[in-house]
Write the structure tokens for this entry.
Amino acid sequence: MNSEGKRPMRTTVGIIGAGPAGLLLARLLHNAGIDSVVLESRDRAYVEHRQRAGILEQGTVDVLRVAGAGERMDREGLRHDGIELRFDKKRHRVDFPALTGGRSVMVYAQTEVCKDLIALQLKEGGPLLFEAEALAVEGADTDSPRVRFRYEGSEDVLECDYVVGCDGFWGVSRGAIPAELTRVFERTYPFGWLGILADVAPSHDELVYARHDRGFALLSMRSPSVSRLYLQVPEGTDAEAWSDEAIWAELERRFETADGWRLERGPVTQKSVTPMRSYVHEPMRHGRLFLAGDAAHIVPPTGAKGLNLAVGDVVTFARALTHERETGSAELLDAYSATCLRRVWQAERFSYDMTTLLHRAPDATPFEDRLQLARLERIAGARAAETDLAEGYTGFPFG
Ligand code: APR
Ligand code: PHB
């Protein structure tokens, strides 16, 4: 009984977190006829407006469509067949379909993916409880794990067959795995990203990744009328220390090209700083507790892998549990961690490579500056190197 003498809730899969991982997992399980309950500590408005990345790999686009969550994405998303690398005032376009046998990416913000999945879950899915904070995962190594959570002022218990921690880097699920059974691999970077949203049409029709002696800059977008731009800044930078004028002026310097390309300015509507970290927690499973998404791994945003990795994890879990329900075999569940980590480490490698290729560390030496330019020249001049980038950017296979 809970603190008010009520019988605990019960479900097959307890999902902690209603970010992309938790919401998509609930949808995939619903479509497979498997019941779940989603516990989300924040309110709906917060989840739907939390600014995050906006690039969906081909695999993610396909999963959302098959899951019945792709209709607005296909209507409002922007298909992109390439990106531009900019360095030494030069411009080089990477042509994804030509290099990957037809793959592209979709520009469609994570906030919109979450809105679409929340609407589906509330309309057709199982319980999605907002402002329900998971306090602990108990009994992960038993046949009946539980999630203790606080909701509407009282403590409650969700009894499950499985718990999937989709509660992000700061969640509670990872802590339920005994420290002596885990290994953590991480690297922090001496810089972060100052990101802005601006009400101005993007100055280029595809994303522009610029390497400059003053630091990295990225031109992205949210729609034909909203630009999303980023500047590399020193770690610990306060976004409010940068005026809009200073941001635009710095972006213009870093995007400068020999052919006089112009960056259009507009009203800045949102400004924030994102720290940079690479992090992997192994294993991604303990008993009947499974970790998915940022709860298990973090990548620097340079390669736009975070959301797409979360998708790969929950596709792997849903496929494994469906297999167990249909055949009685737990083989795919037992392989969950190894299956996910193969893809996670390839994304970590790609994100690290993109980050060190384009960002200038505060203590960079002239040798390292030249090395970066040589790496960029190699990509711009050799199909093999360019193909590796295009394959990494458009996504690694699931499972
Ligand atoms: N109880 C319930 N919910 C929680 C708890 C808790 N104790 N702790 C965290 N949460 C919720 C957060 O409020 C958030 O909504 O879990 C959710 C985790 O979502 P994300 O952090 O978005 O993680 P994930 O779903 O794995 O998606 C990864 O999101 O943060 C970006 O860059 C990241 O693009 C990547 C994607
Ligand atoms: C974004 O649009 O927020 C974005 C795009 C590409 C990245 C990172 C972030 O690599």
In short: Residues 16-22, 39-42, 47, 52-53, 110, 133-134, 166-168, 170-172, 293-294, 306-307, 310 surround adenosine-5-diphosphoribose (ligand 1) (CB under 6 Å).
